[in-house]
Fold:
Amino acid sequence: MGLKSKLKHIVSFLLHGETRPVVAHITYLQADRQLDGKKIIITGGGKGIGYAMAKKFKAAGADVLISGRDETKLKVAANEIGCSYLTLDVRDTESFESFIDDANRILGGANCLVNNAGISLHENGFLNVQEEQFDSQFDTNLKGAFFLTQSFLKKRLETKQDEINKVLFISSETGMTADERPYGLTKAALNSLVQGIAYRYVNEGFRINALAPGVTVTDMVDKQDDGNLYCSYGITKRYYLPGEVAEVACFLLSDASNCINGQIINCNEGKTINARWK
Structure:
């Protein structure tokens, strides 16, 4: 250490006292063990993107619990994936505390939550939106995710575990643009929530992010994987597959992404970029 550095260290010590060094642990992952030690809750896990994520996470070494309203579908999906399941209606906020308790018991302490459950009612413009439709989408897409995450954070903060906890929201590319319909509004609000709680709780051991997929082959868009992914309004003229989103989600829940926090990552090949030459 040179004289100048020594003087700076002395001045810093006099002003602030001795500080502990800050270190980072760089994680290198095996392809099939990316999620070792992760205990993951996925809402809306019986089909679509939720099912694809559960399958990927399980294959990557995680313990997984899927949830949803339809127990029959959940049971079939859980048997196919080899994971656990619990029924949950994300509109029933009063059930969240007991749900998290049950999930923790089954998983041995959940350290990851994926808020995937959501609905879109595809109204034909602002003037056609009914109050019931508005409430249904806000209760499912925003209110449910808000309070389930709140319950999850409270439980994790109580345990004071010395580990990084992950929360992932499945947003949408519609949340990145102006919209007139409830679905897009819920996703825009969700994106704001992600950044707000990510910033607030990063030093409490949480990493909170969102994925914003483009139009994906699921029941929600009434499109099946029939071998032709042509989509007239996609930037590269195609639909996206749930498995593609699941791959990105797997990375965000892994320890390799611990430096990523409060980000909304678009999975749409750049469609929502506000390019000057659009």
Q: What stands out?
A: The beta strands are 39-43, 63-68, 84-87, 112-115, 165-170, 206-213, 264-267. The longest strand covers residues 206-213.
